[in-house]
Amino acid sequence: MVKKHGRRVDVLAKITGKAQYTNDMSFPHMLYASTVRCPNPHAKIISIEREQAEQYPGVVMVITADNIPGIPSQYKQKPILVPEVVRYEGEGVALVVAKSKVIAAEAAKLVKVIYDELPAVTSAEAALGKNAQKIYDDGNLLCKYKAGKGNVEEGFKKADHIFEKEYRTQRVDHTPLETEAAIAVPTTEGMTVYAPTNDAYKARLLIAETLGLRENQVRFITPAIGGSFGAKNYDAGVIGARSALAAMLTGKPVKMVFTREESMIEGTKRHPYICKYKVGVTKAGRITAMEIDLIGDGGAYLSKSHPVATRTLIEASGPYNIDNVKSKVTLAFTNNTYSDAMRGFGSPQVDFASEVLLDEIACELGFDPLEFKKMNHIKENDISGVGQVMTDVSLGKCVAEAEKASNWKERKAELASERNKGGSKVKGIGFALIHRGEAFGAAGQGIDTAEVQLLVNNDGGITILSSMADVGMGGHTMMVNVIMETLGVKRERVVMAPVDTSYVPNSGPSSATRGTMVIGNAARLAAEEVKDKLAAIAADVLGVLKEELVFKNEQIYSPGKADEHVNYQDMINEIFARGQTPSGRGWYTVSGLDWDRANGFGEAYLSYAYGAAVTEVEVDLETGQVSVDKFIAVHDVGHAFDKSEVIGQINGGVSMAVGMALFEDVDSKIGHIKNTNFDKYLIPTSLDMPEMNSIVVEVPTKTGPFGARGLGEPTACTAAPAIINAIYDATGIRIRELPANLETMMEELKNSRNKTDLN
Amino acid sequence: MNKINVNMIVNGEVVSILVEPNARLLDTLRDNLELTGTKEGCGVGECGACTVIVDGEAVNSCMILAASMEGKVIETIEGLGGDNGELHILQEKFIEHSALQCGFCTPGLVMSAKAFLDVNDKPTREEIKTAISGNLCRCTGYSQIVDAIEDAAKDYYVYDVCRVKK
User: Fold this and answer.
1) Which of A132, A243, A499, A657 could form a disulfide with A184 if both were Cys (CB 3.0 to 4.6 A apart)?
2) What mean pLDDT value characterizes chain A?
3) CATH topology of domain B89-163
């Protein structure tokens, strides 16, 4: 067993089945709403006939965009209900509100919508092509950015070898086990909405805009959340606003819960990417230049495509020392489900590309892939691909741990000699490493801030007020740990207030791996304020400087003197006795980044997370089946508040990336999604997962609370390239388009056999 | 449609209830008996979030008609702990091994594990993985869940006999 501070704050409720998720709640006189969806990926609404549905027994109301008192959406953002033009299949055009969920769903089929079908554009390349059907009046370009440093033309001249490669990643669904859900309850002040989201304040804003209310007239409460991975952001606002609209118009509480099929059809997805690389390398294996062209499919609406695009642009050259880099990214609108951040915020796409790319180059030039990457990766104070001086770089340590745990050289040779013996199953080993900017950074296109307040009671108990969503990653427990470690108090003293926008301040979303870094820092600053108040009195009593005091074990100590101390509770009592309050407030802003947006140069992120992975796979040459046997995942978390929980995060991120590598693929070639449930959209089961060896490295940063680095997303970035590299080691087959599913593998194995026969 | 009267034992208590002929066991448990610990994740018997134990066997309650439960003994997550708030050993081990994150799949996983351990006192790791392969978890990567079940199995037999409350 590894070090554990204590239980997750939400664990008892969850393990006993008592945790209340949104669908577990109900209210008196509650109605149910169901969404009427457009069956075409691109169509103009001509008319909506409500009568038949309205007359269905048990139906209370049929609602369309005309009934929205506020606005259906901001410009180019997904509308709550489509007013005129449907831009992807499955979008909501009307709501049916009824006395039961069954009636609502049945009556939704009776709403007759007449459409004028428009040609659909279902790939980014097609959307950016000349004469493509326009999805918006001003065209299909969503955004375009460039970045880089040096002069790639000069760099290519210095190279002995030039490589040109292209990689493609697929559309992936987040599939949290809990689908989108919401309950809206009308109040005299406005509206109360219960829904799982990773950003309560943003969801509230969307609802307020829909209803035409001030933000503080909407009270947004986040019950237990059954996973997000980026899914419960804009999607949560949409379902929240629909239920709120129905509740406002009927005057009754309204519940909406998406079926898995609805979630798959309407919910956001990870951006599919095409990554084109041109790389110059010397005989000695030094990379002289890298030119990158990224094209992404943003789907029908904006969502957070801009920050996803900039992150991919910044990270696409990988954590490598390259003097000359030139990159550009273009995102297109298409008639697909709108794309949004999914565990990695763009990183998994470009990490897959760059880590397979360097593996290919190493193999083609006769280098060991791990040695080649070791030779080229950034070290302390090296310059990143966008010109940032990189500090607290722990790649060397991560790679060394992965190399040691895997016994890389010996194991690689062993597997090669095993393969020489023949057989229908072959094994191989693969490696990948990553760097990943923490929080929104320069790519965020806005200010990244968080506020946290601490309510300190007379008995010394502390309540954390924060809108941070615990989507499952243990963010609330992290905050409790930060408070405990800062104030040296017992775990039992600290509790988390429910996330309710009427009471808690805005801590921003649980996304972009900003929770620990940004919200954790706000929690630390709030605790520092409490600490400062306690220290002022303690310093007086003990006769020392307050900066020198040591807070631990519920005591405040003179420096280096175990017998000279005052008690935490006594100091709290004293503060109240003086008519003051020990409560504290923390405000953290990611600031001071010198980023040239026009040229994509400078300080992109305040800090970075690093990781490395080695995996062993077995490929069945007859069936194409790839099994991942072992996975070593090394991640630098800076400071582990709870190692067992950290390992859980790593294992979960890896499982998601195993799915991305081997089977997950939203089948929507013509704008119509075919695999809408887990019988056809396969995610990893317990039998698909390798034996995990998750290794926690702790090299502190100067920025995170107690030196901690974020972890959620980096864990989902190494597995896809490591697995694809291992498949190459096993078979000589290089997969450049994900996923490496049975069909792809069979096809590739057949091609490779034909090639061998011809030779 | 006429409702059907069903008599069943749910978490040790006799329940007599009128259900629609097409009502799923999942909805009856959640909506009529207010046992909301059992979750719905897919509605097609693929994710296992709705797993309950019927006559000793783990089943997907979204795929079973409540009307077919006459005389059956049903266990849900709510029936697992003791009356005084103590936890079942599986629940304790899930906590100890950090085997849950968002918690949505957890009740189903615990019930699958219980049905399995009730009849397998010395399971291998591979057998455990197979036993829970019908329960999808998007958060944990399963490893710590398998650890928890493996650990629970060590003390399981004695513990469970003491716990029988029917």
Assistant:
1) A243
2) 96
3) DNA polymerase; domain 1 (1.10.150)
